Amino acid sequence: MPATTPNRFYPYPLPGDPTDIPGDMQALAEAIDEDVCTLQTNLVGRPVARFRGTTPFTSESTARANVNGPATPYEDRIPWNVEDFNTANVIMTSPDVGQRLIFPDDPGFYFALVTLYVPTFTIAGATVGFMGLQIRRGDFTNPTSLVPATRLAGCSHNVPVDANDRNVRVMSLSVGCFMNGTTDAFSVEFRADTTPNTSGYVIGERTITILRMTES
Amino acid sequence: MPANTPRGYTYPLYSDPANFPAQLQDFAQDVDTDVATLVARQTAALNRPSARVSATANQNVPANTPTILTWATEEYDNAAIANLGVNNDRLTLTQTGIWLVTAEVNFTANGNATVNGRRALFAPNLSPDKAHHSLRGSQTQDVEMSLVMLYQNTVIGDFIRVQVLQESGAALNVSARSFSVTKVAD
């Protein structure tokens, strides 16, 4: 009755077993071969994904100044439409509501980096005094709900966005956080405040890059 | 006297007494140990030391006074990086290597007409000299700020804190905030 090694369970004969050198060698060689093949298959780089939004998106009326309290998920959540690369099993999800959630299908600690280009505001007579960008934790299974849309990170600008803004219109935001692989999804939300209030603010191309740092 | 391959696998020489079961067991166990080590390293590479802490309660920040932020909730920690019961102002790097560090801070508005700047920076150990970020303040709007840096840690047990400064002329609060680290390279 052959025994096995303690960790990888490779078989080897015991002194009382019938002598079968070729058979025992083959059994051990095949067990090692299969194990090393599995090891090689699992030797992958860090799981990473990047998505872009390339179509213009108009945020809701700037009458509500604060990014923290949208009335519906659609007011601030930015839609995505391009998958640049994806080895992390991350899903650009909920097409019925405009693909506004980025769902990591595997649990783990993730690092995410968001960039956003905000074109110069062109509505005559209106000035921009505030722009806010946040990453929130949306619910993949309930994409139209704002609960629980926990705030994960935020950044803002409080300078006028015009021809003299020295390119502050490129916003970036990063976060490290755990996502559970069952409901948690990244929701990227943008808000602007203008004087006077206007019907909306058109933003340009945006990216979200995601690295998976742990497996649980 | 058996010999070993460069990876340490044992094999008999022609001059050794024939003992096939024991010799094959010795070889199998050597390979077992070696592959188990490789699997452990692979698992570690896919499970980097990481932690995130956060807080939502207001923390008072006096004007023109560098203030170290404190944290209340340990959201994730797989490597004993956060110990808020002992030190609620830091994340301690429990391994050497390159770490990706990120933090974000929400400064509430205090209504002062003098806004001036808001600043946040990473303060490794006691030297606040890494990864500054500053913004113009606002009289009426919250100011949110995001920081990120790659940090080379050479001493196990060194720690990083987040320091803020505001120049509005009066005290204000920092409300929602978070702070995370994850190791990206040895």
In short, what is this structure?
With 216 residues, chain A is mainly β. Chain A has two helices and 14 strands. Chain A is rod-shaped.
Helical content class of chain A:
10-25%
- CA radius of gyration of chain B is 26 Å
Biggest sheet record of chain B: 6 strands, antiparallel
Q: What quaternary form is this?
A: heterodimer
Average the pLDDT over all residues of chain A and give the rounded result.
Answer: 86
Describe, in plain words, how this protein is organized in 3D.
The complex is a heterodimer of chains A (216) and B (186). With 216 residues, chain A is mainly β. Chain A folds into 2 domains: 3-42, no CATH class; 48-212, Sandwich (Jelly Rolls). Chain A has 2 helices and 14 strands, in the order ββαββαββββββββββ. In chain A, strands 5-3-14-8-11 form a 5-stranded antiparallel β-sheet, with no helix packed on it. A 3-stranded antiparallel β-sheet of chain A has the order 10-9-12, with no helix packed on it. A two-stranded antiparallel ribbon of chain A has the order 1-2. In chain A, a hairpin with a 6-residue loop joins β1 and β2. Chain A is rod-shaped. Chain B has 1 helix and 13 strands; from the N terminus they run ββαβββββββββββ. In chain B, the strands form 3 sheets. In chain B, strands 3, 4, 6, 8, 11 and 13 form a 6-stranded antiparallel β-sheet that branches. The model of chain B has no long low-confidence stretch (mean pLDDT 92). The chains are: A mainly beta (216), B mainly beta (186). At the A-B interface, β2, α1, β8, β9 and β10 of A face α1, β8, β11 and β13 of B.
